[in-house]
Amino acid sequence: MKMPTERILIADHDESFCASLKTLLQSQGYRVLLASDGFSALEAFEREFPDLICLNARIPGQDGLEVLAQLRNQNRFIPILMLVDLESEKQAIEALRKGADHYIKKPIPLQGLEEIIKKFLELGKVKIENIRLQENLGGKIEELAKANLRLRETNAKLEEVSQVRTRLISLIHHEFNTPLTAIIGAAELLLHDDVKDPQQVREFLEMIHQGGKSIQSLIEDYNYLQQLEAQKATILSKTVDMGRLIYEVVSTLGVLADQKGIQLGFNRPSGIPFAFVDEDMIAKLLEILIKNAIQYTPSGGQVQVVLREEPRQIWIDVIDTGVGIPAKSLDSIFEKFYRTESKWSGSTSSSSGKGLGLAIAKQIAKAHGGDIQVESEEGKGSKFSVNIPKERFPEIESKKTELELELKDMFRRLIRMVTDILGVKSSSLMLLDEQSQELFIEAAHGLDDKAIQNIKVSLGDRISGWVAAHGEPVLISDIEKDPRFRKENNPLHEIGSLMSIPLKLEDKVIGVLNLTDPEAGKPFTEEDLKLCFIFGQIITTVISIGKRYKSIRESFIHAVTALGGIIEVKKDIGYSRLRQIARYAVALAYKLGVPEEQVKAIRWASMLYDLGLTKIDEFILKKPDKLTSDEYELVRQHPLITSEILRPLAFLSSSDEIIRYHHERYDGTGYPYGLKGEAIPLGARILAVVDAYTSMRSPKTYRAAFSPREAIEELKRNSNTQFDGNVVEAFLQVLKESFQDDLAL
After folding, report:
1. Hey, where are the domains in the chain?
2. Global pTM?
């Protein structure tokens, strides 16, 4: 019979136990190595490379669990049996977590221990043989892959791909093997050992669960990165308050920062910086960058997130006082599977250490037309800067005529405005192809750009086809309960509440406007349907005029007046009052000698200046009691919200500053920026006086309407404090000269 020749390292400070076990094992032909403390155990391991290790958890010199961790870092395959105290279940669980293959409670009969050693020596051989087979197979696959690449690519490209593949193999070996070892070890103990303690069973099951989640996360991240690189990832863009989004991510990660003793802060500009982005994707990008910053910043350090706004783009800086990045790594850190060594923790960077996080973040930024830059100095920290365009639309075919380009861009901008003002998750404009008699999506918001390109709906088919065929609107509070339609298997979105109206030109249906799922969670109402019809009228006006004029600009000018009807429905201030505000503002502008082009800007601003109030709950706007500080702050933001809603209409840029500043006070105590005197644009000073006068002349829930005399006296009383005194004086002259009938009311 052939005697075994395996080497066994016994690391235990119990000399009697070691001597007895050594004698027994040597009698069976094993070569036995002894170590009485942690340091000598590590030395013996490096010198002799044993086939199995018996390690006492309480070995002196260095904690046994720490020795276990170091052994596992050097070799993942050698079986390690942990000797633990009889009553120490926690010690046993921790040993398994750190990589032990099995634990043995002392005291144990030597014969029983010998059988366990034999069993795990055999398991170790099988494990090592499997690894060797996998490596051989992996090596052959890699050789075939490299041979194929040599036929198709240059030597430089081959070297680049080889490096990526090497990192991938290393990633799979390391990231898959670690959780798999924990899963298999815990499962074997549950299957073969008599584990009866419910708490212990739960611990083992948690190990299996966490290992499975780790593998699943790796696969999901890799697949997601592949989609991003292939430009196949679904992007659901909408207008997002970037300040709110960043604040939510920072707040969520604040717990992680607190646990490490790191100060996590957020600096944002005044106002509301909006961007047209996929909210979930940008949140993922931020989470990756901030988690990385926290991971590589020692306790007592700082991580600061800074939001900066420029006219056409948003900048987000993630700045830390961590260990920094080696200069040689700065050009490579965004490559997938690339990982840098940390000098203070010994861990590796990016998302969960997989070398995918920064690559994903980079691709998300690129998918939005932006990018990420990095500045770093070892020992002083790093700064990652993300730039994202505020607005970005897909490419349009160059073969389209200039008018078609303007129309297409027009529709995208109007649909975006519809989605924002009505507060819905998605909206779409479908036009009718007269030849095929099919509806196609001309513009959409909140739906995947690529997915909608091939959508066609025949007349009478689905809800939109039914609306086009019958020429009647559809208002569905809950599609599951509507007898006319069964729920559509729509891959673009889950429909709950829906509105769909026909678009008619000279009594002929030319398309359909669809809106789905209010963000507030409540079903659509008849009031919402009125709003929808107003937008439908705007769109048909644009189409009609666009067919007659060489420039679509005229379509905007005609359509913009119709937008005033939105405020009439949503705010209950009356369309007649909007017209009156415009009449007053224009007459006052002429009285003050304002140039004609600026008068046009004042006219548009006076029709649209309070559009932002449509984004504020009517309960707040109609509240008879004093507003809370949060409610008041929300109302104060409405000029900025209006500005962002109208931002897609580039020709209204001259009206933007009038809208933004019409609530500034002449004495500098107004909002949103606290401008003073003539620093406030004249158009905004004009609108402030006119708005105040017409507001006082209108009844409120908490007071009756002012008489003309009372309103005039109030304007005089607030001259040179709230209002520009010269503008007030000119307005009173305009009232006497041009609006005597209004004064008689």
Report:
1. 7-152, 238-389, 406-562, 574-745
2. 0.41
